[in-house]
Design brief:
Blueprint (H helix, E strand, L loop, with lengths): L5 H14 L4 H8 L3 H8 L7 H11 L4 H6 L17 E7 L3 E2 L4 E2 L5 E8 L9 E7 L12 E5 L12 E6 L2 E10 L2 E5 L10 E3 L6 E10 L7
Parallel strand pairs: 2-5
Antiparallel strand pairs: 1-4, 3-8, 5-6, 6-11, 7-8, 7-11, 8-9, 9-10
Helix pairs in contact: 2-3
């Protein structure tokens, strides 16, 4: 299903390809996909994955590359724009990864370090936690290797419908969209599969919302 903003992405993809004088097949080879995938991108039926977005950003060059990179969570503020030190807050970063797929164990005592972020990004800074992502169930929005910020002060499931949340099942934590079907709440991956299934929240003891995903940051290492 096309995502919000996919029409603009489709139009920009086609315009960029034509501006560079490439056929769909040629652009596909650069991005590691076939001509059919590029045709679907340009029709708004499919979105490029993170690797392909990185290639498109490189083709676009400055300053247009920032529009492309922002689609996968890479903001120029993250990559070196000066910030007043008094406006910086520290957010703990877990060593363990959070899952965009089947649940992943994350020990809250296991802190790898701290992210230094602008205060206005994290208004509830003392309640925000960061973790790396593993898995592809939230792709192309969130790729494996991204870092997500979780606002643990935002837990009321009634106020989080249609939001992206982190949920705990025992010691495992996973990222999903929160939806409602009748009287049941559901954790829904971006692309449900047999491996990445919709989960029904049958009771608080089974699955608990631990916070809302307020931001994600793409890893530049993936887009070389």
């Amino acid at each position: 299903m096309p995502q919000k903003g996919s029409n603009e992405l489709a139009e920009r993809t086609k315009a960029l390809r034509e501006a560079k004088g490439l056929t769909q097949a040629e652009l596909g080879r650069k991005c590691g996909v076939d001509q059919g995938a590029v045709a679907k991108w340009e029709a708004g039926k499919l979105q490029p994955n993170g690797r392909a977005i990185g290639v498109l950003a490189a083709l676009a060059g400055d300053p247009d590359k920032w529009w492309w990179l922002e689609q996968i969570g890479i903001n120029r503020s993250i990559l070196g724009v000066p910030v007043d030190p008094s406006d910086i807050v520290e957010v703990p970063l877990f060593k363990d990864r959070i899952s965009a797929g089947p649940g992943w164990i994350m020990d809250e005592r296991n802190i790898d370090g701290f992210l230094k972020l602008p205060r206005d990004w994290v208004p509830h800074a003392r309640h925000v936690r960061a973790a790396k992502v593993v898995g592809d169930s939230m792709s192309p929005i969130i790729q494996s290797g991204f870092t997500v910020l979780i606002d643990t002060a935002d837990r009321d499931h009634k106020l989080l419908l249609r939001k992206m949340v982190a949920a705990r099942e025992g010691d495992e934590i996973t990222i999903k969209w929160l939806r409602q079907e009748g009287k049941f709440y559901q954790l829904v991956p971006e692309h449900p599969t047999d491996r990445n299934r919709v989960r029904i929240l049958t009771a608080d003891k089974d699955v608990a919302i631990i916070g809302r995903i307020i931001m994600w940051i793409g890893s530049p290492d993936q887009y070389k």
